[in-house]
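Batch manifest, entry 17 of 40.
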Amino acid sequence: MKIRLSVWGSGTGSNADTIMGYFHNHPTVEVAQIVSNKKDVGILEKAAKWGVPSLVIERDRFVKGDAYVPELQNAQIDKIILAGFLWKVPETLIEAFPSSIINIHPALLPKYGGKGMYGMHVHEAVIAAGEQESGITIHLVDEQYDHGKHLAQFTCNVHSSDTPQELATKIHALEHKHYPEVIAQWVSGQLK
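Output type: structure tokens
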């Protein structure tokens, strides 16, 4: 029986697309579900392209209700992969999937993490601070934003002439190259 992943995102779904491609016809892991907190976004189109069922969630039930745990259980989900999902994960979901939710952050945590630190906000802050290096952090999810145990970090150089958009391009390349491989290592137990 394959390990079943639920991949969550809020936007274009470029990471989710890469993950679905990586695990398409994989012998031991499958993307069984895509979850989005927005309708009419690219991640849902990419799910349809790969033939992966999708679920659109709404805030009140996610934050104050059952966090869609019944739907995840009905889909026999083993692990949750956050790939550009912008809502804070409630305790209800963390308790239902202990040590089974990971996130990717577009900076070298603990720097440039926390509430409001996502997407271009991160890259603008990195450049404004004059950092010479940035990268990605893949980490377990806990009750705090961008706080859980780090599984992996990968770096890139930041040049003084880089714009936030240019840095974003470098970060996306790191995400697409490394996130699926780290997920594979994590679900197989090589990373804990």
